[in-house]
């Protein structure tokens, strides 16, 4: 039987990197899928390639400069791959793994849209790693990170409610989803709800009367599941809140907003 963490892991995008290669994996509660990999062009020449031009150590200096530039280009290429994969299917979390200095270099180079979802870093060899090892690492990282992250999200929710940059409760959160305002959707663990979809606009609502002149209300048996799917289509992050102390601050579902 899957653990609670496995059941709620969402979609974690994992990258396993060294100085020249990167392998990508999609980790969900049910499966692990390896995605197309990325390989930077092979390094040119040998360690002390080129003539020394009469200067002591010149060849070594040029070599190390070339290595640093190629490592930078490699990291930039991996970042672009991650952005592309996340655009195609937004991830709930990101794991950076690998060997050597490439892990730290990539973690530092992540743009905010990815850095905000980093669940951790770990050591894995891209030439030897298996899908099962990646899945274990992703779930372990997420489980370790979750209590602190949930506390931070609840604090952000409280602050946002005072500034118009958050909602708490199904009705207001669904309105924000209809306007594509949601940056992070917070879902209390085990919450269930039914609702409706307005036939004309296709927006989700809590009760039939919320549709008003917006077409016939169509029953939605799993309102939370539909809201979660909609948030992901809008490139919002979806986080399940499990910690009992944090859950008591969430009225079923809540949201941090992109704009008021």
Summarize the structure in words.
With 260 residues, the protein is α/β, with parallel strands linked by helices. It folds into 2 domains: 4-143, Nucleotidyltransferase, domain 5; 164-257, Ribosomal protein L30/S12 (60s Ribosomal Protein L30, Chain: A), CATH 3.30.1330.30. It is 40% helix and 24% strand. It is built from 8 helices and 12 strands. The protein has helices at 4-7, 58-88, 102-109, 112-115, 131-163, 170-178, 223-233, 244-247; strands spanning 12-17, 21-27, 32-39, 93-98, 118-123, 166-168, 182-188, 195-198, 204-205, 217-220, 237-241, 253-257. The strands form 3 sheets. The protein has a 5-stranded mixed sheet with strand order 3-2-1-4-5, sandwiched between helices. A 4-stranded mixed sheet has the order 6-12-7-11, with helices on both faces. A 3-stranded antiparallel sheet has the order 9-8-10. Strand 1 and strand 2 form a beta hairpin. Helix 2 (58-88) packs across helix 3 (102-109). It is elongated, with a radius of gyration of 23 Å. 32% of the residues are buried. The model is unreliable at 1-7 and 43-56 (pLDDT under 50).
- Radius of gyration computed on alpha carbons: 23 Å
The coarse overall form would be: elongated
User: What is the number of helical segments per DSSP (H or I, 4+ residues)?
Assistant: 8
According to CATH, the homologous superfamily of the largest domain is eRF1 domain 2
Would you count the extended β strands for me? 12
Work out the helicity level: 40-55%
Spatially, the strands of the biggest sheet line up as: 3-2-1-4-5
Strand content: 15-25%
Number of domains: 2
How many strands, which pairing sense, and closed or not: the largest β-sheet?
A: 5 strands, mixed
Amino- and carboxy-terminal Cα gap:
42 Å
């Amino acid at each position: 039987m899957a653990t609670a963490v496995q059941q709620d892991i969402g979609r974690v995008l994992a990258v396993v990197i060294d100085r020249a290669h990167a392998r990508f994996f999609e980790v969900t509660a049910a499966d692990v899928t390896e995605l197309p990999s990325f390989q930077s062009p092979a390094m040119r020449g040998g360690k002390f390639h080129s003539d020394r031009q009469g200067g002591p150590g010149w060849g070594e200096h040029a070599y190390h400069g070339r290595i640093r530039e190629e490592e930078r280009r490699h990291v930039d290429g991996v970042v672009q791959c991650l952005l592309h994969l996340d655009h195609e299917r937004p991830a709930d979390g990101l794991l950076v793994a690998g060997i050597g200095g490439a892990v730290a270099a990539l973690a530092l180079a992540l743009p905010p849209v990815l850095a905000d979802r980093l669940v951790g870093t770990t050591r894995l060899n891209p030439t030897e790693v298996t899908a099962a090892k990646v899945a274990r690492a992703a779930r372990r990282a997420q489980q370790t990170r979750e209590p602190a992250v949930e506390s931070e999200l609840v604090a952000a929710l409280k602050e946002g409610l005072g500034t118009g940059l958050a909602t708490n409760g199904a009705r207001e959160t669904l309105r924000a989803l209809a306007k594509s305002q949601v940056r992070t959707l917070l879902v209390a663990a085990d919450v269930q709800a039914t609702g409706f979809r307005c036939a004309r606009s296709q927006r989700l609502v809590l009760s039939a009367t919320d549709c008003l002149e917006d077409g016939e209300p169509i029953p939605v048996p799993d309102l939370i599941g539909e809201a979660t799917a909609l948030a992901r289509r809008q490139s919002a992050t979806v986080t399940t809140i499990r910690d009992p102390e944090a859950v008591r601050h969430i009225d079923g579902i809540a949201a941090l907003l992109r704009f008021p």
